[in-house]
Amino acid sequence: MSYAVDEFGVDYPGGTFLSGDRFLACPRCRELVDAGDWKGLRDWIGPNGLDTSSRAMLFGFKAHRRGGAVELAAQAGPEEQLS
Ligand SMILES: [Zn+2]
Fold first, then answer.
1. d(CA 17, CA 20)
2. Domain extents for the chain?
C-alpha cells in the first residue's frame, strides 16, 4: 500500500532529493501513520539511525501527505519506500 503525497524536495549537501508522488508503506508503517504516531514511525524506521535528510523526508511526508493509504494495485509510477 502507499500514500499519495504532493511532491516535495529535501535539501542535502549534494543537492535536492525529490520525494516523488507516493510513499510505500508496510502494514506496520500504515498502522503508525494512521494512528498519527510519528515518533513511533521514526523509531520503527530507524531507532537511532535516521540522518538529517531522512528526518526531513519523514517530516515532508507528514506535511505533504494526501489522504489515507491506498492499495498498490491501483497505482503506477515512481515510488519511495518509507521503510
Ligand atoms: Zn514500513
1. 9
2. 2-77
Ligand 1 centroid to Cα of residue 54, in Å, is 14
Q: Distance from the CA of 82 to the center of ligand 1, in angstroms?
A: 6
Cβ(25)–Cβ(18) below 8 Å: no
Report CA torsion sign: 63, 33, 5, 9.
positive
Q: What is the DSSP string of 13-37?
A: TTEEEE--SEEE--HHHHHHHHTT-
For residue range 17-76, list pLDDT tens digits in order. Answer: 999 999 999 999 999 999 999 999 988 987 676 788 888 899 999 999 999 999 876 555
